[in-house]
Design goal:
By secondary structure, this protein is of the alpha+beta class. The protein has a domain at about 5-80: Roll (Ubiquitin-like (UB roll)). It is about 20% helix and about 25% strand. It has helices at about 35-40, 85-100, and strands spanning about 10-15, 20-25, 55-60, 60-65, 75-80. It has a five-stranded mixed beta sheet with strand order 2-1-5-3-4, covered by helices on one side. The relative contact order is 0.16.
């Protein structure tokens, strides 16, 4: 049985382009990442978060929902990508070639 002195604080972070929210939660040792998110009740602020499919991370490293959270860690909630980064780079490169800012053969500077 754990007592109150074993608990530690974990921050849950979610960011949108225009705002961010950080919620501190007291958790017991052995608490999983998804349990920390549930305890934070962050869904009441951002109902678009689907706890069944959301991607979570600890300091920019993706973790599984069952990952045990340790003292000093921060659970980050990741938003889905709007566009595939490879497609964005490819379109930017094609645009540069069309505008004459890049070599059409090598892709290097014209």
């Amino acid at each position: 049985m754990t007592n109150e002195t074993d608990k530690f604080v974990v921050d849950v972070v979610y960011a949108l382009p225009t705002q961010q929210k950080v919620i501190s939660v007291n958790v017991n040792p052995g608490t999983s990442a998804i349990e920390v998110v549930r305890l934070s009740n962050i869904v009441s602020f951002f109902p678009e978060i689907d706890l069944d499919t959301v991607k979570l991370g600890v300091f920019s490293n993706v973790v599984k929902h069952v990952q045990e959270i340790l003292p000093g860690q921060r659970v980050e909630i990741y938003r889905p990508l709007i566009a595939d980064p490879k497609d964005v780079r490819r379109r930017r490169s094609d645009k540069a070639k069309d505008e004459g800012r890049a070599n059409k053969v090598t892709g290097g500077r014209a």
